[in-house]
Amino acid sequence: MSFILGITGGISTGKSSVVAVFKELGYPIVDADIVARQVVEPQTPGLNAIVEVFGNEIITEDGHLNRKKLGSIIFQSDEKRQQLNQLLNPFIRSEIVAQIEEKKKLASLVIVDIPLLFEGHYEQYMTQVAVVYIPEVLQLQRLMKRDHLNEEDALKRIHSQLDIEEKKKRADIVFDNQGSQEKTREQVMAWLSKFK
């Protein structure tokens, strides 16, 4: 019986650096961001569904999704963002579940990296959920610096997700990422030694 560890956090909380530790140690990873890109490749039902709702202007000349254009539409409107999530959810969910089933055959621990784990109600597929945590004030600083955003735009993106404090409350495991990467890595290694 495989242990399925869902890893989530907020935008810019450092989830990728935690997942990288598991990846480096050879654990199989299901990455929701990669799945979300796969389901909107040219000629896919996912991309066709988006075009039907948001129009051809979100397609580049070579038939790919224009992420910047789509982002500018959905981050201005909660309604449009929810609409996009509802459109893509069935495609993404079925692919994530299929990949979990596939990777369970390979290892006793499978890592599932899902930024919107709680928002999408993916807990049901996980044995436990780990949240990579930093307080919102630090999240805001990191996001503004990383993506060169002003405070208003950065806050819009942060508030488009479930509050990080709420995620922390719902977590089975919290990896606190306020310190150095080394400190975060130590927390992951400590959890793994308990897990084994």
From TrEMBL:
Ribosomal protein is among the record's keywords: no
PROSITE patterns for this protein: DPCK
InterPro entries: Depp_CoAkinase (IPR001977), P-loop_NTPase (IPR027417)
EC number: 2.7.1.24
Gene Ontology cellular component annotations, sorted alphabetically: cytoplasm
Keyword rRNA-binding listed: no
Residues holding ATP: 12-17
GO biological process: coenzyme A biosynthetic process
Name this polypeptide is given: Dephospho-CoA kinase
NCBIfam families in alphabetical order: dephospho-CoA kinase
Substrates-to-products reaction catalysed: 3'-dephospho-CoA + ATP = ADP + CoA + H(+)
Any Pfam family: CoaE
Keywords per UniProt: ATP-binding, Coenzyme A biosynthesis, Cytoplasm, Kinase, Nucleotide-binding, Transferase
Homology family: Belongs to the CoaE family.
An example molecular function term from Gene Ontology annotations: ATP binding
Pathway(s) this gene product operates in, as recorded in its UniProt entry: Cofactor biosynthesis; coenzyme A biosynthesis; CoA from (R)-pantothenate: step 5/5
Cellular compartment(s): Cytoplasm
Role this protein plays: Catalyzes the phosphorylation of the 3'-hydroxyl group of dephosphocoenzyme A to form coenzyme A.
SUPFAM superfamilies: P-loop containing nucleoside triphosphate hydrolases (SSF52540)
